[in-house]
Design goal:
It is built from 5 helices and 3 strands, in the order ααβαβαβα. By secondary structure, it is mainly α. A 3-stranded parallel β-sheet has the order 1-2-3, with helices on both faces.
Length: 111
């Protein structure tokens, strides 16, 4: 939840609206479907309970092939980051979060 708060604070401070927050991959998938089509971007951790981020990403892309998802990863998870990008993630951010990098990657994903 710390990373969720951090990402939310970074994005809202730059004028983005955070329309939904989920505590795990399954909630994230359900929230995406509930808010669709009013979601411009999803930031999602690779490591989450109930359904990991890679599985949730697969399900979101199945539901909406145009979904823009930026994955958040700890160092040392390059294989999962690569898999996420192959599935359809638009970009990734490595923890610990760096404000400048978060904004840069989010803006790139929104292009």
């Amino acid at each position: 939840m710390f990373v969720t708060k951090q990402i939310s604070q970074i994005l809202t401070s730059e004028g983005f609206d955070v329309v939904g927050v989920a505590g795990n991959g399954l909630e994230g998938l359900e929230k995406y479907k509930e808010l669709f089509p009013n979601v411009d971007l999803v930031t999602m951790d690779i490591t989450m309970p109930k359904m990991d981020g890679v599985s949730a990403l697969e399900k979101i892309i199945e539901f909406d092939k145009n979904a823009r998802v930026v994955m958040i990863s700890a160092l040392g998870k390059q294989d999962l980051v690569k898999k996420s990008l192959l599935i359809g993630a638009k970009n990734y951010i490595v923890k610990p979060l760096d404000r400048k990098k978060v904004l840069e990657r989010v803006l790139l994903a929104l292009k």
